[in-house]
Amino acid sequence: MNDSDRRLVNDTMTVMNALRSDMQEFRGEMREFKKQTIERISTLESDQVECQKNPSVCSTARLLESHIAGHTGQKSRTVSIWAVCISCLMFLYTLFSGLFKRS
User: Fold this and answer.
1) Does the pLDDT value for residue 88 go beyond 70?
2) Does residue 68 contact residue 76 with C-beta atoms inside 8 Å?
3) What's the pTM?
4) Phi, psi at 54, each rounded to 5°
5) Same domain, 59 and 95
6) What is the DSSP string of 36-52?
7) Which residues form the domain of 55?
């Protein structure tokens, strides 16, 4: 084994040691990422379970409740009655126009 072969082996060993240390750092980062991901998923699952057990905790349920509460007044009832009346009139118009066009 001559001097150039020794340098080549030495360089190869240096590169391999550097790669080993990089891999150890990468493994540590991946462990940390896995830990954070598991924590986030656990938090999301617990929030979802809590939302199913107690809907007042869930923001979507609160928004829906406030939306429904906004439609329980007299104005909403009046609009609903007008909508039913107009729908009935349109049904009668369609029924009579269908009967008279056939005759």
Assistant:
1) yes
2) no
3) 0.44
4) -135, 90
5) no
6) HHHHHHHHHHHHHHHHH
7) 1-72
**Same domain, residue pair 29 and 63:** yes
Q: What is the pLDDT of residue 103?
A: 58
The number of distinct structural domains making up the chain is 2
Residues 6+ positions from 58 with CB-CB distance below 8 Å: 50, 51
61: Cβ–Cβ under 8 A, 6 or more apart, which residues? 51, 55
Q: Are residues 38 and 59 in the same domain?
A: yes
Examine the domain organization and report whether 68 and 89 are in the same domain: no
49 with 84, same domain: the answer is no
CB 50 within 8 A of CB 57: yes
Residue with tokens 């240096």: 14
Residues 12-52: tens digit of each pLDDT? 999 999 999 999 999 999 999 999 999 999 988 888 888 77
Query: Is 59 found in the same domain as 100?
Result: no
